[in-house]
Amino acid sequence: MSGPLTPPSDGSPYFPITERSASLARIHIGVTSPLIAIALIMFVARIWLRVRQAWRISWEDYSMTIGVAAACVDFGFLIPQMITQPTLITEEQRIWTRKYSFLAIPVWGIAMMFIKVSIAMMMLRIQPNLLWWRIFCYVIMFALVAYGVANTFFILLQCRPLEASWDASVLQMVDGASCLPITGILIMSNLGSGINISTDILLSLAPTLFLWKLKRPLKEKILVGALMGLGMFASIASIVKATLVKEFGGLTKDPWALTNAISTWTALEQILIMIASSAPFLKPLVQSALHRMGWTLSGTSAARSGYGNHYRDMNGQSVRQSRIVTNKSMTSRRDIYGGDEDPFAVGESADAIPLELKAFEGEKEQRRGMLRQ
Q1: Using CA atoms, how far apart are residues 11 and 352, in angstroms rounded to an integer?
Q2: Any idea where the Rhodopsin domain is (predicted)?
């Protein structure tokens, strides 16, 4: 064990980093670092699936890209605050870390706004011709943008000059310097928590209204529903963060540890919503992995199904039946190997590819061809 921390010999101000603060910093880095790496890998895979066969990048992808870039900046701004060993830091070091932890707050808000707007844009394509659904999605997007912009201005203008937000000495050194009372900041924080929790829940559960009506196998519906439902974990992180924020500004024994805990849950909320926004687009990769294990989302063994089709053809199956089976097999392979990068594949938009409809149309074309023969 290390000995007791020694204050600076010149008598300059110092601030102690306790064992609890250092422990929470290690937890923050150990938990958020692998998670943000996973989120970035999923985002890259999402973009790759959207461009590998044809350029299918749309507005939700651009919005997501901005959100991911802001999230990476936010993650970097929190690192200086995470001092992993008990020590004494100078007042200059304390102000420097507080500066970046403060700037991380508006960057976090911007990232969340663009990421959630991306999810709302994706949801809009589930039922693009349904009026009330379009209104619902646009209201969600408007609320997210309005709060995101207002919250950014509120944070940057809560102290005049801005430096007073992380350096309290400015309030005594600069004439006219002032900051909003802590109660006003907590009210805005609670309002933001309510908006974040409600939008997390709505964006996670609202698609299930239509998911079960899709003409897809049950296992595929469950898969897409589970991928969309990952956003519920972000709402849990937001709830935990809201309970911790209530202690902020009060009489706490270790304010640095409290700040580390709030930062960890804030980062978790952001990273989990990043994962939830990209997860539905990775359905083709999940389908391909299941196929390699011999199963499709329809619940049948891929290898067994292919052998059965060949066996019946070799034993005198009619040409009409063989062509229909072949057409369905082609559609199934397209579904298995990820030919459809759209997580829902419904509606009439250019990105939507209703596989069941295409299979039915292909079967009708086969019948017409046989009648002409």
Answers
A1: 68
A2: 45-287
Q: How far apart are CA 283 and CA 211, in angstroms?
A: 14
- Structural domain of 259: 14-282
The CA-CA-CA angle for residues 125, 128, 133, to 5°, reads 100
pTM of the model: 0.76
Task: Kindly state whether residues 222 and 88 are assigned to the same domain.
Answer: yes
Q: 158-170: per-residue pLDDT in tens?
A: 999 999 999 988 9
47 CB contacts (<8 Å, ≥6 apart)?
57, 61, 65
User: Are both 208 and 86 inside the same structural domain?
Assistant: yes
Give the number of domains in the chain: 2
More confident residue, 1 or 18: 18
In a domain, 336, yes or no: yes
Task: Return the beta strands (E) in the chain as ranges.
Answer: 14-17, 87-90, 159-160, 178-179
- CA distance to 87, 336, 366, per residue, from 90 (Å): 10, 59, 79
Query: How are the residues of the chain apportioned to helix, strand and coil, as percentages rounded to the nearest 5?
Result: 70, 5, 25
Residue 46's CATH number: 1.20.1070
Q: Tell me, yes or no, whether 43 and 188 share the same domain.
A: yes
At 30, is the pLDDT very low, low, confident or very high (cuts 50, 70, 90)?
Answer: very high
Domain-embedded: residue 1: no
Mean pLDDT of all residues in 346-357: 38
What pLDDT was estimated at residue 342? Answer: 57
Long-range contacts (CB closer than 8 Å, 24 or more residues apart) made by 245-251: 245/186, 245/189, 245/190, 245/193, 246/186, 248/182, 248/186, 248/189, 249/182, 249/185, 249/186
The set of residues, in sequence order, having a beta carbon less than 8 Å from that of 125 and lying 6+ positions away, is: 342, 344, 347, 349, 351, 352
Considering the domain boundaries, does residue 2 fall inside one?
no
Terminal-to-terminal C-alpha distance of the chain: 89
Instruction: Identify the domain boundary among 282, 309, 327.
Output: 282
Give 295's strand partners: 301
